[in-house]
Write a structure and sequence with these properties.
The protein is of the alpha/beta class and about 350 residues long. It has a single domain, classed as 3-Layer(aba) Sandwich (Rossmann fold). Helix 1 packs across helix 6 and helix 3 crosses helix 4. It is globular and about 60 Å long. One of its GO terms (molecular function) is hydrolase activity. Pfam families: Abhydrolase_3. Keywords: Hydrolase.
């Protein structure tokens, strides 16, 4: 099976600065990115007007923290929790939504957050971040640090700081792995759950397309999006191997002790996630890297027959199959947290 082979993820790692690409390419990326932002905004607005989300998926409350007043945090309490609940503090899950660092808001994950809170009994906090191209790397990373470290406005949330988990989808999963490396937050999270993450900006989109182990399937959801994501998120001169940008290069000791990586079979981001989790678990030489595993707190699942975004219905294919796969994975993630002592 073809694999991407990033450089040895141990210091010293030679930097790989981003070069300034030709003007026509930059114009192409500019137009594609802004067109995508416009179309996604229009589609989301019209969809919500015609098909309002059910009340059962709405957050318990929303807050805006003084440190990031333009960003809304959406809070989901488990349905059996009351202010006088004798259990007191709750294990807490921080959710970071996807969207190529460019589109959507924390509202995108409302359905997931409400279901995850019910499934696990966790307090779920869905955070937003500022978007590209106006706010490139590392703005979104520090937006999350600013919200996490900010004093809580009333009402105080029942956060159990000894049982914190962070997770995200696609770009949000990249940010989850970046945030946990920051000195102010390092080792504060017991676990990270990453769904089809972007973990390596050191390879170009064509390199990733050519490395795919499949050819005769639908085109990837991402396709040319890789170019405008790279243009908008990564400034010329930025080291592409910076672990905050490309978590593939992060040292294991700078990440949570428990990491669960989920990838879609038909996704050009699959191989980088697959290689990263095998490296963390010390299984680089494993022959069958598609097969799931769990070792020393590291867990890997490949969602067979699925494409990027399968958890949110963005991929084509039978809806019943996507729902079946994602709900089985969410149950596996819950049980994995239980085995790690994060959940009771």
């Amino acid at each position: 099976m073809p694999t991407l082979q990033p450089s040895e993820a141990k210091p010293p790692i030679p930097p790989l600065p981003k070069t300034l690409l030709p003007l026509p390419h930059r114009i192409y990326c500019f137009l594609w990115l802004w067109a995508t932002k416009l179309l996604v905004t229009l589609h989301t607005t019209i969809t919500n007007l015609l098909h309002p989300p059910p009340r059962s998926t709405m957050p318990t409350l929303t807050v805006r923290l003084p440190s990031r007043p333009t960003l809304e945090a959406r809070i989901f309490y488990p349905p059996n929790y009351t202010g006088t609940n004798p259990r007191g503090l709750l294990p807490t899950y921080i959710d970071l939504h996807g969207g190529g660092f460019a589109v959507h808001t924390a509202r995108l994950d409302d359905a997931f957050c409400s279901q995850w809170s019910k499934l696990t009994g966790m307090l779920v906090i869905s955070l937003d971040y500022r978007k590209i191209p106006l706010h490139p790397f590392p703005t979104a990373v520090y937006d999350h640090q600013g919200q996490h470290n900010a004093p809580q406005p009333p009402p105080l949330l029942p956060i159990d700081s000894t049982r914190l988990t962070i997770g995200g989808f696609s770009a949000g999963a990249n940010l989850a792995l970046a945030v946990t490396q920051l000195p102010a937050l390092r080792r504060k999270f017991r676990a990270a759950i990453c769904y089809y993450p972007i973990v390596d900006f050191s390879h170009s989109p064509p390199d990733k397309m050519h490395a795919r182990p499949y050819r005769d399937y639908w085109h990837d959801n991402l396709g040319d999006a890789g170019w405008w994501i790279d243009w908008g998120y990564v400034h010329p001169g930025q080291d592409r191997r910076d672990p905050l940008l490309s978590p593939w290069y992060a040292a294991a000791q700078d990440l949570p002790e428990r990491v669960y990586m989920v990838a879609a079979e038909y996704d050009l981001l699959r191989l980088e996630a697959q290689e990263m989790i095998h490296r963390l678990a010390g299984l680089e030489d494993r022959e069958d890297k598609e097969e799931g595993f769990e070792k020393d707190g590291y867990k890997w699942t490949l969602a067979k027959g699925c494409r990027h975004g399968f958890t949110h219905g963005f991929s084509r294919g039978r809806r019943s199959r996507r729902v079946e796969v994602r709900e089985e994975i969410w149950k596996e993630a819950r049980d994995w947290l239980r085995r790690g002592g994060v959940l009771e």
